[in-house]
Every structure is written in C-alpha cells, then in structure tokens.
Write a structure and sequence with these properties.
Largest sheet: 6 strands, parallel
Strand content: 5-15%
Number of helices: 10
CATH topology of the largest domain: Rossmann fold
Number of domains: 2
Strand order of the largest sheet: 3-2-1-4-5-6
Radius of gyration: 17 Å
Order of helices and strands: EHHHHHHEHEHEHEEH
CATH class of the largest domain: Alpha Beta
Bound molecules: magnesium ion
Structural class: alpha/beta
CATH superfamily of the largest domain: HAD superfamily/HAD-like
Length: 212
C-alpha cells in the first residue's frame, strides 16, 4: 500500500466498543420504546437494541418502522443526551494512535453526544480535526466531510486511508471517493464486505504500514 499522509478514523466501535456504555447511555431510550409496545427480552427488541448501538438512530428507526411519535420523542431525548461516565479506547487503539500520519476523526451521530464521548475518551489531542456528521441538523454525509478534508489539506484520495467498522458508512464513503480502506472487524465480521484490507487489531495496521 502506498504511503498514507492522512488517516480518517471512525469513532463508535472503532475507537471504543459501544456495548461498554450502550445499556447505560440508551436506557432512557429503551424505556421510552416500551411505552410504544417494544417488549424487553423479545428477539425483536434485543435485535433493535444491538442495531441502535451500531448505527445512527434515524436509520434504525426507518428500517424498523418506528412509530412517528416515538421517533420525535426519541430525537428530542437524544439531542440533549451526553455521556459523562468513564470511557476507555480499545487496548489496540494505542497502535493506531502511534501511526505517523495526520489523523481526522469523523463520526456520525448527535453532535452533543459524540463530542461528549470524545471528551470522556480523552482522545481529542490525537486528531488534527474532529468532525461530527449529525443527520439531525444537516444533510451532509461522511463522503462530503472526507472531500472537505481532502480539499482543506490538499490531499489526493490515494493519500488517505479510512478506518472504520461499518461497510455501509465510512467504508462505502471512502470507496466512492477512491480511498483505501481498513475494515475493523473487532465487534462484527463482514465477510462479504469489500475493503482494501481488514483486521481486528490495529497492530495489523502497523504491519501494513511497514510493508508499504
Ligand atoms: Mg462505527
């Protein structure tokens, strides 16, 4: 792989495991869902809970036909939610942090919540810029942000490696722009997803860099 000047990194399930905070973070949302007929312990509810910990709430709500009033109340709740508990990056995040390239954190979610996670993780100084793509307030996509970073930093697609866990989010955005990708399969494997390289430990990434 060609030398990379810039790494664009996802946050949720890439820097830290959402499941480590998910039950606590989303407890008020899961309670609200019960008012709308969602029953704890059922396969359907447990499946949707897992999905909410992995993907933007709006997408999960759309795909699962959430009641419109529930969506409104959930949005009101999530817009003001912050996480103030302890958070820790994955142990192998240190390998990613040490890589000699400029790093940009690009994450999708509610702005206030995503910023609070960055703060609790203590990772802000690791990144040249932290960008939150918030579908609640903007139609911008991750691809739009990646393009803006390339423009601002005078980078070509081949200068950039995009690192993330979601084939349909940052990995798809990177591929659409001709950027190389590292699919991080720590929480979930995606055997059919296409990516330049993949692994479940950022130590692998170090090797890929050394072999360039
Ligand atoms: Mg993610």
């Amino acid at each position: 792989m060609k030398n990379k000047k810039a790494l664009i990194v996802d946050l949720d399930n890439t820097v830290y495991p959402v499941k480590s905070i998910g039950e606590q973070l989303f407890a008020p949302l899961f309670e609200l869902m019960q008012e709308y007929g969602w029953t704890p312990g059922t396969d359907r509810f447990e499946g949707v809970k897992e999905d909410i910990m992995r993907r933007p709430f709006q997408k999960v709500a759309d795909d699962n036909g959430f009641n419109a009033e529930l969506v409104q109340r959930a949005l009101e709740l999530l817009r003001t939610t912050e996480y103030t508990g302890e958070m820790n990056p994955y142990a192998d995040y240190e390998s990613l942090r040490r890589l000699p390239a400029d790093k940009y954190l690009v994450t999708t979610g509610f702005e206030k919540l995503q910023r609070s996670k960055v703060r609790q993780l203590g990772i802000e100084a690791d990144f040249k810029k932290v960008s939150v793509v918030d579908p609640d307030v903007s139609d911008l996509s991750k691809a739009d942000i990646f393009k803006a970073i390339m423009h601002e930093e005078n980078l070509k697609p081949e200068d950039v490696l995009v690192i993330g866990d979601d084939p349909e989010s940052e990995i798809a955005a990177a591929r659409s722009l001709g950027m190389d990708t590292f699919l991080y399969e720590k929480e979930k494997a995606h055997p059919r997803a296409e990516a330049t390289c993949r692994g479940s430990n950022f130590g692998d990434l170090e090797n890929i860099f050394r072999l360039k």
